[in-house]
Structure formats: C-alpha cells, structure tokens
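sorry for the late reply, my laptop died twice this morning and i had to redo everyting from scratch. anyway the thing you sent over, i finally got around to it. pasting the sequence first so we're on the same page, its 315 residues, then the predicted structure underneath. double check i copied it right bc i was rushing
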Amino acid sequence: MVIPDASTMPAVESEAQLRALLAGLCGVDAVGAEARAAKLATRSIKRSTKRAALDLAISMVDLTALEGADSPGRIVSLCTKAMRPDPRDPRVPSVAAVCVYADLVAQARTVLGDSSVKVAAVATAFPSGRASLRVKLADVSDALDAGADEVDMVIDRGAFLSGRVGQVFDEIVAVKEVCGRAQLKVILETGELVTYDNVRRASWLAMLGGADFIKTSTGKVVVSATTPVALVMLEAVRDFAESTGHLVGVKVAGGIRNSKDAIHYLVLVNETAGSSWLTPDLFRFGASSLLNDLLMQRLKQQRGAYVRPDEFSGD
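ok and here's the structure:
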C-alpha cells in the first residue's frame, strides 16, 4: 500500500501500519459531541447576514437525482434548474453539482456544457458498495468516460465493520487512481457505522486513501446525515489538515430539507473546521428538496413574506 501524493500525507506501507494509525486516533466523547452539536444548532445569525448564508448554501448544493424512475427528461429539467435556480433572478448562484447515476451522466453533461455546475456520478455499486473491485472500477470508468467531473464512491461497510480496513483502503486508493483529476467523494454511510469512533476511523481511512471529500451517507438508509456525525467528520478533516497540510471537504447528505438545517450546518462548519471550509470546494449538501426551501427563504428576505411553494419547480 502506498498513499497517493505521499508528500502531503502520512506514508502507509502496510496494513499493520494502517491499523496502528487508526487505533491511535483519540476516541470520541459521544455525549460531548452531541451536546456541542445541539448547542451550535441554537446559534442564530443576524438578519443582515442571512441572505449571504442562503446564497452560500445554494452554491453548496449537489442537486441529486438518484431514483430508479429518473429519466433523461428529468435530468434535463434538473440541470436547467441547477444552472439557474430562480430564472427570474440572475443573482441567485448556480448550485455546485448535479449528482446522478452513471448512465445519466452523458445527458447531464450535454445540458450543463461548460457551465460552472459539475457533473457528479455515484459509483462503486452504489448504494450497497457490494461488488468486486473490477466491477467497481468499471463503474467509475464508465462515469468518467461519459463526462463526470466528480465521483461519489461508497465504501464496503461490511468489510470495514468486520475489520478488513486494508481492503477498504485499497479500494479507495484504486478508485482514486482511476479518477485522475476528477474529484473523489468517499461515502461512509455513517448510519451503518454504529459508533462515532467508527465514523472518525472511517473518515481518516478515506482521507489517507486519497479522498477529496468525505460524505456522510447515500440517503438510502433510515439514518443519514446528523449534526453530531458531521461534527465528528469536520473535526477529522480539521485534524487531518493540521497533520498533513492537505484540506479535504465534507459532504452531508440525506434528510436535509430546509434552510434552518442548512444554516445550522454552516455554523457547525465555521465553529468546528473553520471559515476555510465555507466554500463549495470544501463543503456540500447532497439534497433534492433543500434547494426550493432555500429559494423560498431567499425571496422572503426580499419580500418580507413567504411565497407559495409552487413558485418553484418540483425538480
């Protein structure tokens, strides 16, 4: 095992060394993490800065279409909305990316063209992560060949939970190598990792393997993103940056549906990792319904009253 870009990351040359590194991480104070996340969730921001926070949150959205019934027509509509979330107001920023299955990447690429909106593809046997490495790498290659800018891979939680951390690490390294310049987001599926200690270890494992982002969840299990889990992951990227000088992003996904929640996450980011992470390059929301609420709240700031939900498309 050799870490990509070893000049900025700790060298890991054996599974024993990897195990020792992960075992040496400090345990998570579960009560403390939950209390701190709850306390930060009570923070409010000034009305004068709320508009900027809403625009920032919009720019951090990975607008997601990950249903079996998704069609090329829906992808066209989704991509159009991603570029111009509110057609009446050109000041509304574009979202960060559109996230789709690999077979719909080409459609998204065609619509988005050379816009600032990235095409992200879920891969590696999403959402289960249960397939051979050969199949996973083929999945990634297909997405990249179709024009994906970013790949959201999912780890094999069964392998991680049974202690086969070397296997998980090797798969991340292999996927990162195939990605080349494309960004790699590694999905931990934290709702299945059981403990905060496992979330911290999986976060470091992914970062050591070359992840550009660590992502909470697929959105396909009952428990998705939570603020305590995000806190643990943000602490991990902060500590990793302090140790290596290498900045890794965080993506929270699943269950984030309203502006209040999004702003709570922005506060959590600022207070835990720091203001450097308050950019779409280092923090994302994986969501399908969040965008409309952000747009509604934005208009409320302008008009002083809530607008009807049907003023925005349902995509």
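The CA atoms of residues 38 and 227 lie 8 Å apart.
thats about all i looked at so far, will dig more tmrw
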